[in-house]
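Problem 12. The chain below contains 171 residues. Write out its predicted structure in token notation.
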Amino acid sequence: MFKTLYSSVFPLVKEKYPSKVQFILRQQIQPWHPSSTLVHEAAAAVLRLSPSKFYDYSAALFERQKEYFDVSVVNESRNETYKRLAKLAGETGAEENKILDLLRISDKPGEDGSLNTGNGVTDDVKLMVKANRLTGVHVTPTVLFNGVVENSISSSFSPQQWEEWLDKNIV
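Solution.
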């Protein structure tokens, strides 16, 4: 769905509905894929430091997603995966080193002795999870229209189906 939105629907909306439609990509971590959290943390870091690169980074992640599937990361440390994710962010124009600084997990306890210190985007991820719970999002993709889950839109929607749906629903 993202590829269709990014390559076909976003340009269509910009042309036909420039001031009527806003797309907001809300990330949905899939906890049954542990590396999903790392990928979403990296996207959160890009969103925070280089918001104009967020959709480009998301497109790059979708294009190269298999590099971050469970089998592809099982033998590397969390910080090694973050390093690869930050490098990919750099390839989309975000500042690789600053992204990595937000993502890196320390191997030292926090000043208060805490051992689960998280990273620079831990609070961002908590907000993402909370927002998705509040709106009833449990699976991907889930489309909301005016804040309400729109079940008629499926992941297999073609650019033509999107255009028809938008023409029918945008006043």
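Discussion. DSSP finds eight helices and two strands in the chain. Students who got a different answer should revisit the alignment rule from Section 12.3.
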